[in-house]
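Table 4 source record.
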Amino acid sequence: MAQVRTASARGGGHDCDVLVVGGGIVGLSTAYAITRAAPGTRLTVLEKEPGPARHQTGRNSGVIHSGVYYRPGSLKARYAVRGAAEMVKFCAEYGIPHAVTGKLIVATERTELPRLHALVQRARENGIPVRELGAAQIPEHEPEVRGLAAIHVGTTGVCDYVAVARQLAHASGAEIRYGAEVRHVDRRPGLGVAVRTRSGDVIRARVMVNCAGLHCDEIARLTGDDPGMRIVPFRGEYYELARPELVRGLVYPVPDPAFPFLGVHLTRGIDGGVHIGPNAVPALAREGYGWGVVRPRELGGTLAWPGSWRIARRHWRYGAGELRRSLSKAAFTTAVRRLLPAVTEDDLVAAPAGVRAQAVLADGTLVDDFLIREAAHTVHVLNAPSPAATASLPIGREVGRRALAMLEEVVRP
């Protein structure tokens, strides 16, 4: 257990030892990890919304990812594999709805077969057991799904991530302030960080942790740091299946390795409903959950970032297909029918969308791993899209470890 002399022990003008900006699952997991590792640490969480988990955490498919897709040795691979097991245990301990359902990754075209075999190898390198299936074996798991071949991943599951976030908030013992949007940051070496919220409140801390998700690069710039990336928001649109009996569990296509999205998949959630999606289209605001949500300043920032145009040039064919499926329900249905031939356009009922906070470098590279950087008195989490919810417990421990090490340096006489 870390031995950190806290602000309360030393006195001084700080309101807390560690200030976490962002009340999504990563920020709350960080608070939980810090208070478990160093009891007595004074910790405050600022969340601009009236409750936790209102954005990426509460608007995803609810999947506990196994880690099969991610590059061996990457943070995503290591934390997803570890985090999946920990998330199941956490849900069981606190009575949070969850289920380990397993999933199929299905190849529907011959060109996908080499990529499917590559996933088998990647799964083995990441220590994940999988079973290869021929076309005749697919209906044993999913009677209505058709494909040329598939792999079955038994460790995948689903849970209620909003309930997980609420439990993390409660168990952390942190002071959590909702409706507290950060508007200004004053960082002074040797002293700490002072944050002013929209309401005019000022909170002084020795160390700040930036877990602001869709706004993490903006918070980084408020501290005076150049994050070297920008968040480019991608909206993921979902439908709910009117005939949920068509799908037993989770069914995924073989993903395109050139893009960090997993493709439109079928997910039976803990409530028994089946969601289909998401696609991936540019959002016109950081919280642009529909085409009608446009924020000119945020859109202008995205368009001014050179990486955005380089993405468009590099992936325009992929993007055109995603855009077509966004604007045409018939086109979306056609894409779903590759996996689930029995589905009709009438079976798809519009469901709430989500927005992925994707970090993009100036050269157009889509950051494909979790990105955590440190600066004076500050730890920034700059890329934490999927599978961050799955991996939130180990991510929180790593971010918390860095914050506590920084705190120990700050309070050392």
